[in-house]
Amino acid sequence: MNHHTVVLIVEDERVLQDIYKFVLTKNGFKVLTANNGVEGIEELKRSKPNLVILDIFMPVMDGKEFLKTIEVSNYPKTKFLVFSNLSDRETQQEMLALGAHDFVVKSSMTPDDLVRIARKMTV
Fold it and tell me: How many angstroms separate the Cα of 35 from the Cα of each of 55, 111, 116?
């Protein structure tokens, strides 16, 4: 793992943002954060991260709007991981159809799981 692997966390819950940032940074990722989809898009364009961890429910712009707005195909080097407490199949399929590479239910996820998934998705 090297410091060239950049992860962007788009999450409005500051506590979760801090936990994810801490554990990913500790494991060698360079971590950027955004509090909503609008900030997330600005950061995505600026930094072209390897991985975006995307919440669905956020103020200003939610995760679905984020994916619709950016056109995932414009970012071939970036993987998009949707991270939400919404676990219904319909939502998962919709997010995957919009270009997300994977969907993880937050509540079933430990920080170690997150690191493992981030590594797998940025190889």
Answer: 10, 19, 23
Give the integer Cα–Cα distance in Å for 25 and 10.
15
Query: CB–CB of 74/43 below 8 Å?
Result: no
Residues belonging to the chain: 123
Question: SS3 for 107?
Answer: helix
Tell me the one-letter amino acid at 59: P
Distances (CA, A) of 12 to 48, 53, 61, 121, 123: 20, 12, 10, 22, 27
Tell me the per-residue pLDDT of 28-79, one tens digit each, with 9 for 90 and over: 999 999 999 999 999 999 999 999 999 999 999 999 999 999 989 999 999 9
Task: Provide φ and ψ at 59, rounded to 5°.
Answer: -70, 170
